[in-house]
Structures are given as structure tokens and as C-alpha cells.
Amino acid sequence: MFGHCAQARHAWNLAWEVNSTYRKGGARTTKPVRYVGMAAMLADVRRTPTGDLTTEEADYFVWVASGNAEVQQQALRDFDQALANFFNGSHGYPGRRKKYRHEGFRVIGTGRAPAWTADGEAVLNAKGKQVVSRQVRVEKLNKKWAQIQVPGCGWVKFRNTRRALPDAKTFRVTHRAGRWYVSFAVVPDPVDAPGDGSLVGIDRGVVITAALSDGRTLNCPQLTARERAQVRKYQRRAARAPKGSPQRRAAHAEVARLRESEANRRKDWCEKTSTTLARSFDTIRFEDLKIKNMTRSARGTVEEPGRRVAQKAGLNRVVFAQGWGLLRARTGHKPLVGWRISHPSTRVCGAATASGSTRTRARAKPSSSVPAAVSPATPTPTPHATSRQDRAGLPTSGPEACAGGTTPHQRSSVREPR
Fold first, then answer.
1. For the segment 345-373, what is each residue's pLDDT rounded down to a tens digit?
2. What angle do CA 81, 63, 103 make, to 5 degrees?
3. Are 242 and 256 in contact (CB under 8 A)?
4. Quick one: CA torsion of 162, 167, 168, 172, rounded to 10 degrees?
5. Per-residue pLDDT for 230 more than 90?
């Protein structure tokens, strides 16, 4: 599978080189080449005769032709989608992919299955025959394990984390921190809102990850004190080991394993918490935080070097560990039926407890139009202070321990959201 990863990464980088003339801030003399043109170029490369080439060039073309065509084509489709996201303004320009950092590939299923509509009717083509679509070939072995057919690798066993087998057309295989993961492209079931007109505001902070306007607090799980000590131990061991030695690689692998565990906990918490919010409220308002500006490095330039660079870097790591952006993004992905997320607004906890005003106000400029729940004469409260103020004037909807986390706690909390 590492060979598939190398072929997919090589196809992506080739597409990046072809479209390097059309870059943000660069010369835009020609239109970027999209998937159809890049696929034609790939076919020409695979059919290139190697009789008149040097040994090095011949080996390169033979290596490209030996790769799986579907893996290479899906990498080109991924790059084409990245270009589309860049043109739509939702993402930046795609960059190059590097070995050991971008290890993965996407494949279309090799199975065939008749296509049906949501109403149970057969999908017909222009000739009146039922369409037969591609499908991933997955077999269940037992309660915990299943196997999937990967081109060029045969049947590969994996740990099934869902009750039912996925009904997908494509799947993606990735390698992170010494482990292989397989994910399936499946349209999730819609999350229905309660439909009672409920409104909640969410302030995000560092001590408390998210403070709700009804008085509850949510905390993202972190590494325990023992795990943080292990990270420091392996980092010191890697710093003392010779460069390129097996000891150094083993220490870096242990650090990556612990960081991967922390990221998995954060993603799991964001998924469960966002689902809980989607099922509990009709309208959700998040505090308008410019996370990119808040986490900008303080190192400055050569002419004007920054101050307290290490302290600012530590604060940035703490902010990233809270998962602010992921919680906001995943909550925005959940409103599929009957509800919406309002525009971001500052002081959302105070605004949500008032009469429903959505006016945006800056933190440093109190205004006479501030709702009664937030006093103009007082400084902007922290998320914890805001929760206390709201709790003083409004009844809480539950105990102090809330969905997705607990009140400030030194150890990590992995409680499933209510």
C-alpha cells in the first residue's frame, strides 16, 4: 500500500507542477488544466515508449506505468477538487505533498450494484436499462472485524467501528503515526432539530473550551499529566540521540503516537458535541473569533524581531488543542434538515439570553445597544464569567456537568455527550 501512496502523491505533484503557472499572486497567462486534461496527460505518460530513452528516464516511465491507474486518476480528481475549492474561495491554493506526511490514496470500489433512487425506484439510463454503479467490496468477518478488497493488495482486514457495513462507492486509505486507516464516503443521516425555537450562544476559551449561554460548560479532552510527561521524555530522548539513528526515529514515533491519540480524542469530542448541539437547539450562535489572526506567530522579521516568541507559540498550541475551528465547522455540517446556524456574533452568550438580537459588537467598544444580560459599564467577560452571569439570571437546563465534558478538570474527560 505504500506503493499506492507513492503513486498517488506523485500524480498529485505532477498536477501541481502542470498548474504551477496559475497560482495566487503569480503569472496567470493560461487557464489551469482540469481533470480531463490531466488524465489525458497521465495516459500519454503511461504509454510513452522507453526504447530511445536513457536508463534513468526509462526507469521513471516504467515505474509510472506500473502504478495502478485508478489510484493515479483519483489523485488527479482530488487535486481538481482542491482547485475548485480554491476558485470558490473556501480554501487556499493546494500545495505539494511530501513523503511521510501525506501517505494515503483513494480508490473506487471494484464491485457492481444496481442503482436505486431514494424512493426505491430503479435508476435508468438513456436506453431504458437500469444503471449499475460501482460499489466497495466489504465483507464482515465477525462482530469487530471486516475485510475490504484493495486493488493490488487483495483482501485487507480492518477493525469495523460501525454496526453495519458501509454502502459506499469509494474509500480512502491513509497512514498516520504507524497505523493504517480506511474511511468510506457515505452520506450521513440528517440530524433533526428539536423544532421548539430554542437558541443558544457559545463562547470559546482556553480554560473552558466552550461556555453555553444556558450555563453549561464544555471541555475538550486533553492528554493526561502522565501522557504529557511521556511526550517530554521522548522529546528529550530524541534530542540527545544522533541524527538519523534508530533511537531517534523510535522516539519520534512514540511522540507521534501520543499526539495522534490526542487528536483522535479531540475529533471524537467535536463530533459528539456538535451532534448534541444539533439535536438540542434550533439556532446556534458562535463567538466570532479570528483564529488565524489569534494564532499568528510573534517572531516578526529580521529588521523587527518579535518579543516573547516562545510564550506566544505555547499559547498557540493551547488554542489549537481546544479544537475551536473543528467544533464550529462540524456543527455547521450537521444542520441538514429544518434549522440553521446564525451569523457569528461576539458576546453571543449575552446576546442569546436577550430578546434575540444578532447585532455584532466589538469587544473593546461597549455600546448602548448591548442587551441587558451584558452590562455596558463592565469589561468583556471571559467565557467562565459569562456563564456565571447568565446562570444568575436564567435557570439552567441541567446539572453542572454538561454534554461532551465537565467543568475545569486537570485530567482528560471522555464522557459521551448527552
1. 445 555 454 434 333 333 333 333 333 33
2. 45
3. no
4. 20
5. yes
- What is the pTM for the complete model shown? 0.69
pLDDT band of 1, cuts 50, 70, 90: confident
What CA–CA distances, in Å, run from 45 to 6, 11, 58, 72, 105? 16, 11, 11, 12, 20
Question: How many residues does the structure list for the chain?
Answer: 418
Q: What is the 3-state secondary structure (H, E, C) of the chain?
A: CHHHHHHHHHHHHHHHHHCCCCCCCCCCCCCCCCHHHHHHHHHHHHCCCCCCCCHHHHHHHHHHHHCCHHHHHHHHHHHHHHHHHHHHCCCCCCCCCCCCCCCEEEEECCEEEECECCCCCECECCCCCECEEEECCEEECCCCEEEEEECCCEEEEEECCCCCCCCCCEEEEEEECCEEEEEECCCCCCCECCCCCCEEEEEECCCCCEEECCCCEECCCCCCHHHHHHHHHHHHHHHHCCCCCHHHHHHHHHHHHHHHHHHHHHHHHHHHHHHHHHHHCCEEEECCCCHHHHCCCCCECCCCECCCHHHHHHHHHHHHHCCHHHHHHHHHHCCCECCEECCCCCCHHHHHHCCCCCCCCCCCCCCCCCCCCCCCCCCCCCHHHHHHHHHHHCCCCCCCCECCECCCCCCCCCCCCC
Q: Quote the CA–CA distance of 286 and 331 in Å, as a whole number.
A: 10
Q: Helix 2-18 crosses helix 69-88 at what angle (to 10 degrees)?
A: 40
Residue 78: name the closest of 185, 181, 165, 154 by CA. Answer: 185
The grid coordinates of residue 368 equal 448602548
